[in-house]
Design a protein that fits this description.
Length: about 170
């Protein structure tokens, strides 16, 4: 029975079709009177995301647009409502005031507790988001901090800031 769905994912052939179908889904759900499931709208064209998000918001304020080309994000969004917007804001500057930058910590620059480095960056308008294991382009980044984790030269940082941060490594307290 459709009223028992926990999540409904709508993916049209185009973003405009997704909006039209979502309009019908929301109308059906309102007529049925039951609890509304989590609604995901698959967005194809990232260049129109703001426009499509606005149109979906007019249909219903709780419709979550999700990048349909990224199955991992779709899967996470199904299990964790609201996370698609976080992924989108981290990965783009379409609707955010800041940008995600990768910053390599120079070899031999020093070693700092992750928390101390995060506070140092925060005081300069940057947010430390994740730490990469190396300078390699395919380095794995860790969002969750380990207890007593230390950042060293040779690692990379994922930093959110309005502009690419110029980090005075020699000024960071050890």
């Amino acid at each position: 029975m459709p009223g028992d769905a926990r999540t409904v994912v709508v993916v049209g052939r185009t973003d405009d079709e997704t909006v039209r179908v979502m309009l019908h889904v929301v109308a059906y759900l309102r007529r049925s009177g039951g609890p509304s499931p989590h609604l995901l709208a698959g967005v194809h064209d990232g260049g129109r995301r703001a426009e499509i998000t606005e149109a979906l918001g007019l249909i219903g304020p709780d419709i979550e647009p999700v990048d349909i080309d990224d199955p991992a994000v779709v899967s996470v969004a199904i299990r964790n409502p609201g996370v698609a917007a976080i992924y989108h804001n981290l990965a783009s500057t379409l609707d955010a005031d800041s940008t995600l930058f990768r910053v390599d910590v120079p070899d031999g620059a020093g070693e700092w507790p992750r928390l101390d480095l995060a506070v140092f960056l925060l005081r300069r308008g940057s947010t430390l988001l994740a730490v990469g294991e190396s300078h390699r382009p395919n380095a794995r980044f860790r969002l969750a901090a380990e207890p007593d984790e230390r950042i060293r030269g040779g690692q990379s940082l994922a930093v959110v800031a309005p502009d690419r941060p110029e980090i005075p490594w020699h000024e960071i307290p050890a």
